[in-house]
Design a protein that fits this description.
The complex is a heterodimer of chains A (122) and B (349). Chain A has 122 residues and is mainly alpha-helical. Chain A has 8 helices and no strands. Chain B is built from 12 helices and 13 strands. Chain B is rod-shaped, with a radius of gyration of 42 Å.
């Protein structure tokens, strides 16, 4: 895993803090918080830890199939997706991540858009 | 400010939720802000078990009756978050009245962190298992390239020191007319045949504690006495040689392709080492190896030729014949013998 952002920013030590902050922000957001409201806490934490670790090239693999399955039927809109990306970018910036690296993470997020956003919603 | 006033102020300002209820009817006498934030403001006459829903009745009774402290956990839904609150009940006396002190701590963050650690350790464990499997695969591969003791040295020190073994014996087998066979046969068939035969040879060498060093095309080279010393290295390679021939004879009876081979045995010193840095090959060099290679050429098809010095070791278990004297390239004049399986053993098979 040498050379990944996960390594560069100090591994799980940093990721765990990013996850906690992202988790707080996401729950607080009026736009997207409701998506997380009824997910039980351990599952949500598990999901977000893997999500953020894998975006940074850490030891988690999130297969595209799995991503699609867990987001199916949630009716996620493009604007919801954008909001998550915005919160994530802000959280990463707060943790001192380099803008170029944030760009890299967001590009990784962007590449999953079609799996997460419901195809027939705007 | 009186002590009581300070105490009350303190109870109001701390982050722990605190409430006092009467033991007799469980009605609230006091609660602070954190308590109200999590459970709402208790209305007049509302009892403890209605304000905090999930508390076990038996637990509360035990505190009231026996003063056994009670510890429990309840979940509270606050906006989108589910909070985990640890509740402790203990009995206290205030003058004539018996009170219950309700102490509530928000342990949500601890639970969240536990969840995160669980998640992370599962990921790490899965990765560790994957790495273990990969390591075993690599080890298996390397063990095909070098003997285990050499591999252990290689693993520990990163290098393998060339080592001289004084007493080893070598068996070298080469097919008769292989080039011609390979030319008229489909290469995949040739390879399949070689694979089949060499696999059988590997089993034989293993059975006699020998080590297969390499195959070069149709030639097969195995040693005994290295890297682990063996007193019976001479008989071990002779046993292999006899079994190789016997295997080929039996195989030829049922296969369209008839294989014939010559075998040379050698004995003496050899050096074993890993050759190369990126492409590891464990190889052996030395007089014994040259000897086996040279004598193999002199053998009749399906025959075994060995140096005369091996006679003493082989004569009890094999039929040894006189081959005569030959001028062997690089080794000079040599007295040679032929070796074949003895009758007793031949019957057994």
């Amino acid at each position: 895993m040498a050379g990944t952002l996960y390594e560069k920013y100090g591994g799980f030590k940093t990721v765990s803090r990013i996850v906690m902050d992202f988790y707080e922000e996401a729950l607080d957001s009026d736009a997207i918080g409701d998506f997380f409201a009824d997910v039980d806490m351990p599952r949500l934490i598990d999901h977000q830890t893997k999500f953020i670790a894998s975006l940074m090239g850490g030891p988690a693999s999130f297969s595209d199939e799995r991503l699609a399955i867990v987001h199916r039927h949630l009716g996620i809109k493009h604007s919801d997706f954008d909001e998550v990306a915005r919160i994530l970018a802000a959280t990463l910036a707060e943790h001192g991540m380099d803008p170029n690296d944030i760009g890299e993470v967001l590009a990784a997020v962007e590449s999953k858009r079609s799996l997460i956003v419901e195809a027939d919603t705007e | 400010m009186s002590i009581a006033a300070i105490n009350e102020k303190l109870l109001r300002s701390i982050g722990v939720g605190v409430a006092l209820v009467r033991a007799s009817d469980l009605c609230f006498l006091f609660h602070n802000d954190p308590f109200a934030k999590w459970f709402g403001v208790p209305e007049k006459g509302q009892s403890l078990s209605t304000v905090i829903g999930d508390l076990e009745e038996s637990g509360i009774r035990a505190v009231v009756e026996d003063g056994t402290p009670f510890n429990g956990e309840v979940q509270v839904k606050l906006k989108r978050r589910t909070l985990v609150i640890a509740v402790t009940l203990s009995r206290a006396r205030e003058g004539k009245h018996t009170l219950l002190v309700v102490e509530c701590q928000n342990i949500t963050r601890i639970r969240e962190l536990e969840g995160m650690i669980d998640c992370y350790s599962t990921m790490v464990e899965r990765n560790t298992r994957a790495l273990e499997r990969e390591k075993e695969r690599v080890e298996r591969l390397l063990l095909n390239l070098m003997p285990r003791s050499v591999y252990e040295e290689f693993k520990t020190f990163g290098v393998v020191t060339p080592q001289l073994y004084e007493n080893v014996s070598v068996v070298m087998l080469d097919s008769v007319d292989f080039t011609e066979f390979a030319a008229r046969t489909d290469p995949t068939v040739t390879l399949g045949e070689l694979n089949d035969i060499f696999t059988a040879f590997d089993r034989i060498t293993e059975q006699y504690g020998c080590e297969r060093i390499k195959t070069i095309g149709d030639a097969y080279l195995a040693v005994s006495g290295m890297p682990d010393p063996a007193v019976d290295h001479a008989t071990a390679v002779a046993h292999c040689a006899v079994r190789f021939i016997r295997y080929l004879e039996r195989r030829n009876q049922s296969h369209p392709h008839k294989w014939r081979a010559r075998i040379g045995l050698g004995t003496g010193a050899a050096v074993g080492s890993v050759v190369g840095i990126q492409k590891y090959v464990y190889d052996v060099f030395g007089p014994s190896v040259n000897m086996a290679a040279r004598l193999q050429v002199l053998a009749e098809p399906m025959g075994i030729v060995a140096p005369e010095e091996m006679t003493f070791d082989l004569v009890d278990e094999f039929r040894v014949g006189d081959y005569g004297t030959e001028d062997v390239k690089g080794l000079g004049e040599m007295k040679l013998i032929t070796v074949s399986g003895n009758l007793h053993q031949a019957k057994r098979f």
